[in-house]
Structure to design on (446 residues):
């Protein structure tokens, strides 16, 4: 579609910063340069891997683990514009409707976020930042996707039917169960096949391990989820000096609502524990009165928010909170990481970071445990939920952390492939001479 010369002249009289394309077909000509910062357009697919359409469909048909989405400034190249906001979602390999629904709800926020950044930086700095993040050479070597023909659709439906049949059969004969894997070493180096398996009873899950060393002893706190009542509690394994794990953990925190992701930290010589209770729309903290068994509270440190897997980090006298949040109901709680800071975890106001969400990528957003230092580098463990919830763990090197900047880059990952039938691993902990992670394994109902 092209605009007439006289219409372009009228549009330019308004001296607009941005035009947003929500209709039309492929735009060409002078309209693309009429606004100061171009014509912005959503693309519900990753233009590096899936150009064309239908939106998000081929990701499902070809069982891609992720479905990308971008907001871009259009140019003459189809789907090859300057990307100003990019994100990745988990693809639902069974349902196109479910896959697109969460995908669209998240993408809804891209436009106001980009406009806010344009206002904050100004046009020159905004465009320079986008160009710096854009590849110098932009080549696309995949097909230009179009609506599938009848023959293609028959093959797609047959593959989908086979996949659903296999999944249904697997659910009939087996269950998936989260359990712990431990190794007596704090090193992040080496092979994972050495990890020892800590197996819960058949109806229970053990997940979200967090290690806290006290008086020379290693204490492993985790979530215990009971399938019969569909609720989680916080339990404790106190590991012996000889490396002996107790057969059963001790329940230390049980509420009428679901609890998970215990996070222990020390503040003013007192031991505290954050727990996730996102269904109650708050972040709770408990104080130890007789460690490790007696706790009092809760103290509400953030209220009327749905903050998932809240993780604290203290650095240079300032406290930082990383947490997953969902801006639009309908989006998944796996995709976007928010950062807050305060001078004090209990008595200060938590200030949102100006770059929130600091990560919008299902492959490395959701927290997977405590930040730690390794060889002079600050490492943030994160969940890789591409292809399914908690599929793996990614270790991100934090390059910049300040009240105005945040930057990280992935440097290593754990995939659930070190033993047979493990399908996921999503929390990592080290300390007290131990390394512990969780894993989701298929277990026969027979």
């Amino acid at each position: 579609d092209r605009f007439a010369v006289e219409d372009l002249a009228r549009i330019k009289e308004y001296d607009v910063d941005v035009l947003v394309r929500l209709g039309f077909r492929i735009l060409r000509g002078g309209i693309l340069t009429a606004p100061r910062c171009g014509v912005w357009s959503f693309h519900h697919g990753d233009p590096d891997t899936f150009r064309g359409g239908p939106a998000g469909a081929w990701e499902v048909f070809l069982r891609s683990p992720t479905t990308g989405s971008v907001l871009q400034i259009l140019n003459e190249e189809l789907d090859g514009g300057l990307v100003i906001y990019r994100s990745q979602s988990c693809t639902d390999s069974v349902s196109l409707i479910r896959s697109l629904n969460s995908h669209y709800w998240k993408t809804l926020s891209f436009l106001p976020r980009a406009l806010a950044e344009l206002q904050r930086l100004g046009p020159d700095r905004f465009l320079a930042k986008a160009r710096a993040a854009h590849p110098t050479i932009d080549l696309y070597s995949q097909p230009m996707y179009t609506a599938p023909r009848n023959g293609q659709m028959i093959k797609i439906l047959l593959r989908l039917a086979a996949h659903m049949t296999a999944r249904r059969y697997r659910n009939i004969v087996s269950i998936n169960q989260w359990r712990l894997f431990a190794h007596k070493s704090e090193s992040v180096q080496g092979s994972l096949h050495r990890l020892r398996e800590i197996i819960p009873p058949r109806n229970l899950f053990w997940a979200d391990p967090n290690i806290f060393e006290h008086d020379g002893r290693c204490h492993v706190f985790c979530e215990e989820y009971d399938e019969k009542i569909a609720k989680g509690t916080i339990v404790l394994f106190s590991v012996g000096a000889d490396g002996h794990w107790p057969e059963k953990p001790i329940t230390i925190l049980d509420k009428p609502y679901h609890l998970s992701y215990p996070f222990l930290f020390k503040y003013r010589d007192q031991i505290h524990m954050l727990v996730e209770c996102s269904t109650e729309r708050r972040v709770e903290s408990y104080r130890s009165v007789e460690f490790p068994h007696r706790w009092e509270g809760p103290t509400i440190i953030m209220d009327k928010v749905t903050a998932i897997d809240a993780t604290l980090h203290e650095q240079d006298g300032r406290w930082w909170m990383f947490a997953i949040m969902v801006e639009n109901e309908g989006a998944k709680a796996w995709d976007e990481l928010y950062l807050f800071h305060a001078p004090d975890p209990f008595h200060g106001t938590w200030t949102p970071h100006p770059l929130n969400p600091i990560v919008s990528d299902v492959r490395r957003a959701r927290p997977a445990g405590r930040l730690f230092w390794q060889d002079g580098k600050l490492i943030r463990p994160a969940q890789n939920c591409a292809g399914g919830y908690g599929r793996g763990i990614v270790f991100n090197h934090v390059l910049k952390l300040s009240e105005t900047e945040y930057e990280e880059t992935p440097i290593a990952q754990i995939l659930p492939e070190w033993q047979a039938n493990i399908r996921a691993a999503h929390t990592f902990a080290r300390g007290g001479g131990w390394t512990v992670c969780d894993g989701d394994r298929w277990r026969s109902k027979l």
The radius of gyration is 24 Å. The CA atoms of residues 173 and 445 lie 6 Å apart. Helices lie at 5-13, 57-61, 96-107, 110-121, 123-133, 150-173.
